[in-house]
Amino acid sequence: MFALPILKTARLKKVSLAFAAVLLSLSSVSVNAADPVKVGFVYVGPVGDHGWTYRHDIGRQALEAKFGDKVKTTFVESVPEGADAERVIRKLASDGHDLIFTTSFGYMNPTNKVAKQFPNVKFEHATGYKRADNVSTYSARFYEGRAVIGTMAGMMTKSNIAGYIASFPIPEVVRGINAFTIAMRKVNPDAEVRVVWVNSWYDPGKESDAAKTLIDQGADIITQHTDSPAPLQAAQERGVVGFGQASDVAAFAPDAQLTAIIDDWNQYYIDRTQAVIDGTWESQDVWHGIDSGMVGFADYNASVPDDVKAAADVIKEGIIDGSFHPFQGPINNQAGEEILAEGEVLDDGVLLGMDYYVEGVQGSLPK
Amino acid sequence: MSPESNMFVMIALTIISAATPLVYAAIGELVVEKSGVLNLGVEGMMLAGAVSGFAVAHVSGSAMLGVLAGVFAGMLLALIFAFLTLGLRASQVATGLALTIFGIGLSALMGQALIGIAYEGIPSLNIPYLSDIPVLGPLLFQHDLLVYGSFALVIAVSYFLKYTRAGLIVRAIGDSPEAAHALGYPVLRVRYLATLFGGACAGLSGCYLSMAYAPMWVESMSAGRGWIALALVVFATWQPGRLLFGAYLFGGITILQLHAQAIGINVPSQLMSMLPYVATIIVLVLISRDRGRIRKNAPASIGQAFHPTK
Amino acid sequence: MIRLEARAEPSKLMGFAAPVIALLVTLFAGLILFALLGVPVGKAFYAFFIEPLSSTYGLSELGVKAAPLIMIAVALSIGYRANVWNIGAEGQLILGGICGGAVALYFYEVEKWYVLPLMTLAGILGGMFWAAIPALLRTRFNANEILTSLMLTYIAALLLSLLVHGPLRDPDGFNFPESRLFHAAATLPIIFEGTRLHIGALVALLLVVVGWVLLSRTLLGFALKVNGQAPRAGAYAGFTQNRLIWFSLLFCGAAAGCAGLFEVAGPIGQLLPNISPGYGFTAIIVAFLGRLHPVGVVFAGLVMALSYLGGESAQISLNLPVAVTGVFQGMLLFFLLAADVLINYRVVWGRRGTAGRGASL
Prior knowledge:
The structure holds 3 protein chains of 3 kinds. Helices cover 40% and strands 19% of the residues of chain A. Chain A is built from 12 helices and 14 strands. Chain B has one domain (14-297): ABC transporter involved in vitamin B12 uptake, BtuC (Orthogonal Bundle). Chain B has helices at residues 3-34, 42-60, 63-87, 92-110, 136-141, 145-163, 165-175, 177-182, 187-213, 225-235, 240-263, 269-287, 291-297. Chain B is globular and about 65 Å long. Classes of the chains: A alpha/beta, B mainly alpha, C mainly alpha. Chains in contact: A-B, A-C, B-C.
C-alpha cells in the first residue's frame, strides 16, 4: 500500500529520489480493486461518550454498512490532544490507511505535520482551519441548529430564562450560545440566557449539577454544549424541558427533550470515502449545515405545540433556502450597542473566531 | 413556600447529591488508612461499582440488587489490591495506581453494552406528612436511601473506631502493627477486612453515581472523584466527622461557584472552578496547625508493608 | 498451602528474574484474557510487545514517551525514600510547560540561541515554584503534602486552560485555544533526524546518573534514605526533616517542570489546553516499579512507555477498544509489582517451617 514506498524512501535517501518518486506515483495511481480502502479515525473521547465521539463512530459504522468489504475501518479512541496524537496519526498513515479522519480541533497541527510526511494519504481534519493538498477540513454549522432550538425556547419559556451548560470558551461554543440567544430574543425580546461553564466536555455529575443550578435560578429551558445526557436527565427530574446535544437522548429524558440537534457525519464520510475509491478526492474546506443533513434534528416531542413546530420549521426552511441567516442584523453587543446593521450578515471569518457575547447573554466572556 | 426558601432548599439538595459519592468513597478509605493501608485505587473501584450496579439494576430491574452488585464489584477489586499488597507485599502506592488503570479499563469493557441505556434512578423516599413539611420536608425526608445511608455510615464508622474493641484493634494495627502483632492481633486479617470494607464503600459510591446522581453509564464517569475522596481523608485528618465536613465543603463550593457563574459574575470560569481546590487547601492549612492532634489521629504505619517476622 | 518465608537477605538473582517471571505470568494471563475476548492471541502479543519496537521510528517514540516518565520518576523516588508524598508532579509538570512556553511566546520575534536555555530555566523554576507551595505548607503549617500537591494539580490544569483560552492563545488562530507554534530556536534539538526523539531523552539519562550519585555517594542521599526509615535519624547526618522535605519537593518540581517544558518545546511545539497525558501520575507507578532506584526507574519507564505504545498499536491492528488495553496494562503492572516479592521472600510449599515465621497468603 501507500505507506511502504514512503518508508523506503526515507531509508534509501541516498539511492535516488527520482526512483522513489516513480515508486510513489505508481502506487498511488488508484486503489487496487481487490484491496479494501482503509479508513482510519482518531477520536478524542471514548466511543461511548453519547455525544461528539459517539456520533463520529456512528459515521464510521455507516461507512462499513455502506461499502461492506470494500472498506476497512480502524479507530483509536481517547487519544489525548498533545504529543500522543501525532504518533497515533502517523501510525495509521504508515499502516497503509488511505484516508484518515482526525476528529478534534487539537489534532490540527499533528495532522498537518504527518500529512507532509505522507503525501499520498488523504487526511480530513474536523473543525480546523489549516489545509494542505492532502488535508481537507470539515465542520458543521451547528449554530444553524441552535437558531432553531433558540426559536422554540423563546416561544416555550415562561420564566424567560434559558440555561446553557457550556464546556470551554472556544469560538464554536460561543457561536452556539449567541445563535441560540439571538433566535430566542427574536421571538421573545424579554428572554435572557444564563451560561455555566463546567470546564469539561463530559462529566455527567458536574453537567447534572450545572443543569440543576440553572433550573434553581429560574431557567425553564435547558440546553448544553457538553456531551452527556445528564443535563436533560436533570431537567426531566425537575420538570423542565430542553434540547439534546449531538445525539437523540429521548430515552434518557422522554418528557424533557423537545428535540435534539444531531451531528450527522454519515453522508460526509461516505462521500469522501467514495471519492478516494474513485480517485477524485481533492482537498477542500467544508462547513455544511442543515441543508446537507450534517446538522440534523430529533423528532419533536409530542408536547411541543403546533405553532412552535411551525415556527421552528420556518427557520429550518429559511436556512436551507438561504432566506434566513442566524447571524442577521440587527445584532447588539452586551452593552446594547449595534454591532451589525439591519440586513447585514456576519461572514464566515467572523463566525469562525467569534469571541464575544451578544445582547441577552448574562455574564461576560473572559478575554 | 417562598421562592427564596425554595431556592435555598434546592441548592441544598444539589449539594447533598454532589457530596454523597465523596462521603462514601472517603469514609471507606478512611477505615483502610486507619488500619495502616493506603489504597490509591479508589477511582478504579468506584467505576467497577458504578458499572456493575447500573448493569445489574438495569437487567434485574431491582435497585437493591444493583447496589449489592456494585458493592461486590468494589470488594472484588479491593481483594486484588489486598492480595497483592498484603499477601505479596507489593508496593501499596503503585498497586493502588495500577488498580485505577485496571478499574477504568475493566469498567469500560464491561459497560460497552450499556451505552445509550436509560435507567430511571433510585427512587427518592416519600414519607407521608413528613416529606410535605415546608423546607424541612424536602431537606430531610425526600432523599433516596443512599443519602441517608451515607450519614449512617459515617456515624457508624465514627462509633466503631472510637468506642468498639474491634475499632481499637484497627487503630492499634494502623499505628504499630508490630506491637499489635506482639499482642496477638491478626494484623493481616484485619487489614484484609479493612481493605474490603474500603472497596465496598467505593463500590457504593460508584452506585450512587450511576444510579442516582446521573443515572446512566458513561466511561470514566467518576471523573476524578476517587482522587478527591483520597484527599478528603487527609483533609479530615482521619476523623469521620471532619470528613463529612470536608465532603460538604467541597461539594458546596462546587455548586456555589456554578451559581455564581449563572448569576453572571465577571470572573473567568476556570478561576471559579479552582475554588473548591483552593478552599480545601486553605482550610487544611488552618486545621493542620495543631501538630499534636494530627499526630494522634494519623495512622503511623500507613503505606508500609508489614511482615510478622519483622 | 503456599507460604512466604523471609530471606535472610534480598536475592540478587531474583532482582533480575522477578520481572522475567512477571512477564511470563502476564503472557499467560493475557492468553486467557484475549482468548475470552476472541482476539487472536499471537497477533495481540505481537501488537503489544513487538510491533512498537520493530522500527527505528517506534524505538524513537519509546524514548519520547519514556523520557518524561523517567525524569519525573527519578526525582519522585528520591522523595518517596524520604517519606515525602508528593503526588502532584503532574501539576509541577504543567507549570513548567506554562512558564517555559510563556517565555517562548514572549521571545516569539527573537530567534537566538539563548531562547531555549531561558525557556528551560523558566520551566524548571515554574515547576519548583509549584512544588514549593506544598513544601512551605508542610514545613510551616504542617499541612499534608498528599492533599496540597494533588489539589494544586487541578489548579495548574485550570490555570493552563485559562491562559491558553486567553492571553497566550495564537493571535492569528481564530481564537482557538492554542498558542502560536514555537519557532525553531524555541524547540528542542532532535537526536535522530526524521524522528521526534529530542535531547530530553539525554537529559533524562543524565538525571538518572545524578539521582544515582546523589543517593549512593552523598551525605544528603544518606540522610534521605534514613529519614524514610527513622525520621529523626536524618538529623544525625546534619539534615533536619524540614530541609529534606524542601529538597525532595524542589528537586521533583525542577525535574517535573523541566519535563513539562520538554513536552511543549519538543513533541508538541506549542501550548495546548492539555500538555500531558498524566505523566506526573504514571511516573509514580514508574518510581515504585523501578524499586525507587534510579537505574530501576529507567527500565520501569521503558516498560511503562511500551505498554502505552503497545496499547495504541493493538487498537490499530486489532481494532481493540482502549478499554482492553487498560485492563491488560493493569494486569501487567500487577504482576510486575507482585513478582518483586520473590526478592525478599521465598515461596515455600507445605506447612513446615518455624511457627510464626511467614504468613499464609
